[in-house]
Each structure stands twice: as C-alpha cells, then as structure tokens.
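We were asked to recover a plausible sequence for a given structure. The inputs and outputs are reproduced exactly as logged, with field labels preserved.

PROBLEM: sequence recovery
POSITIONS: 313
GIVEN STRUCTURE:
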C-alpha cells in the first residue's frame, strides 16, 4: 500500500516551470496585488500607519489584509493547478474521482468529506481548550480577563471570514501541493513530511516577534503541527481533517490569549506576567503528546503509507 493522495501528483503535468510559477504567484505576487487593493481601500491611513492593532479599526485592517492576501493566493493556486499542472483542484483535497461529480454543484460539494473535517474541528477544540487553560489555572495571577463585547464580536466575525480561507490555503499548499511535489523526487514519505514541515515551521519564525525564545517556540510548534497535519493527511488520503484542525487552531490562537504590548485584537485573556519555564515547555509538550497519540492510534495505517513509495503506474 502506498499513499493514493501523494500519487495524485501524477494526474497532471509536473514541469519545473509550473512549480516555479505557482510558488511565485501564491507566495509573492499575491502580496503585491493585495497591497494594491489595500492602498485603494484605505489610502493614506495605511501609508501613515494610523491603525493600531489593539483597536477595532486596527483589527479590521489586519484581518482584511489577511483575507485579501490569502484569497488572492488561493485563486492563484486554483489557476496554477488547472493551467500549469493540468489537473483537478480536488487532487489537492482528497482522492475522490472527478468523473463521478460532473455538472452538479451539490455533487462537487459532496466530494469533500465533511465528517473528517468536523472530526478535526471537534478534536482540536478540546485540545486547544486544555492547552490554553492549563497555564491559566496553574497561575491565574499572570492573566487578566479582557472581554469587551463589541471588540470581541468584531474579532469573531473577522476570524470566521478570514481564517477558513487562510488555513485552508496553507493546507492546500503545504500538506497537498508541496508534499505531492516533493514526492516526485523524494521517495520516502517520512522525509517528504519532515521537509515540508520544516519549511512550514520556518515560515512562522517571526510570527511572535524577534525574541529568540518566541522564534524558537513558533518554529518548533509550527514544525510539529506540520508533522501532525501531514501524517493525518496521508492516512486519510485527504486534507479535510487537517483543515478542520488548522482552522480551529488559528481561531483559538487569535481569540483566546494575547500578551501585553502584542497584537491582542480583543482576545479574551491577556498574559501580563513573564513566561515561566513550565509555560515555555508547555507550548510544545501538548503537540508532542498529540503526535504520539496519532502514531499510537493510527500505527498500522502509518506503517503502510510511510513505506518507500514506487512510481505511479
């Protein structure tokens, strides 16, 4: 048994020009296009940096920027898969067969395995609640409640507008497009997973600022998250579960806990004290435990899909 999902790469063309153009479009040109529209929408407000991320207007600007950037990247990815790779965008989602779903939008909708998506949402919600509130219950003095109704409603609405697109795009790009592309040259899926997860982790290195500890934690956490998402993608032959996990993770991350002096966006809690050794370790330990659970629970399936792959026949 090999991963049918990785073998989807052979359903289209795989010239180096197609990969180069797709990466340029989705990771670089999309930002320039988004900036153009942002300048048009907000004009001199952006130029003079009037927006403060800790206000409603600043929150709106931040997430509209994210929405535009990732939406354009999403469209570029769809365009690239069809034009340069000559294959169905659903080859980046799962292994459903296109011939069974033509001409009916309901059937296209049904190509997505929503049960796996909502399983990811449910399981990761429990995981995030435990991960976030354990440090709070250990030492509540380091946190302050920061609930402001209007600001929080604005934040939630913007999150549900933006995060599904942003997280789904990253799953399509990293867990699907990149993993499938790397498998053309790297025939051991475990090396494919480690490579794509390392790239994913490095892409998050400055998300928490330039503090060395924050950079290490962000990179390590994103790397472990990438491993988990890639493993579940391979055993499920699709990204639905990992997309549910990723969307849930980002909604919790942006809405639950902020820090003093950081971009809080109206989170429910603000961490006022410095991080203890336990809290530094705790940022990574839950992900390691979840990874171990995935390995234990799905051991037999992982053993099969992580075998050395053969060329698609």
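RECOVERED SEQUENCE:
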């Amino acid at each position: 048994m090999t991963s049918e999902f990785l073998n989807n790469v052979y359903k289209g063309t795989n010239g180096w020009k197609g990969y180069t153009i797709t990466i340029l479009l989705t990771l670089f040109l999309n930002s320039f296009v988004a900036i153009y529209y942002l300048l048009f929408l907000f004009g001199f407000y952006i130029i003079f940096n009037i927006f403060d991320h800790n206000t409603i207007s600043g929150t709106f600007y931040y997430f509209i920027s994210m929405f535009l950037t990732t939406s354009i990247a999403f469209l570029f990815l769809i365009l690239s898969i069809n034009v340069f790779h000559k294959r169905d965008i659903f080859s980046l989602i799962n292994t459903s067969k296109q011939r069974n779903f033509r001409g009916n939008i309901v059937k296209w909708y049904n190509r997505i395995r929503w049960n796996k998506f909502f399983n990811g949402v449910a399981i990761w919600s429990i995981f995030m609640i435990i991960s976030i509130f354990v440090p709070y219950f250990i030492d509540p003095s380091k946190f302050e409640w920061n609930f402001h109704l209007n600001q929080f409603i604005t934040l939630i609405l913007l999150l549900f507008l933006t995060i599904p697109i942003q997280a789904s795009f990253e799953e399509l790009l990293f867990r699907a497009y990149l993993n499938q592309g790397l498998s053309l040259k790297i025939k051991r899926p475990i090396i494919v997973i480690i490579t794509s997860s390392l790239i994913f982790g490095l892409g998050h290195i400055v998300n928490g600022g330039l503090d060395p500890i924050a950079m290490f934690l962000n990179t390590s956490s994103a790397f472990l998250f990438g491993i988990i998402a890639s493993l579940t993608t391979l055993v499920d032959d699709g990204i639905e579960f990992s997309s549910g996990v990723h969307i849930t993770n980002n909604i919790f991350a942006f809405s639950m806990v902020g820090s003093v002096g950081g971009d809080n966006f109206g989170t429910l809690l603000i961490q006022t004290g410095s991080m203890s050794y336990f809290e530094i370790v705790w940022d990574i330990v839950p992900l390691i435990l979840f990874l171990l659970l995935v390995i234990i629970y799905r051991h037999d399936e992982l053993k099969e899909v992580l075998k050395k792959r053969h060329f698609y026949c």
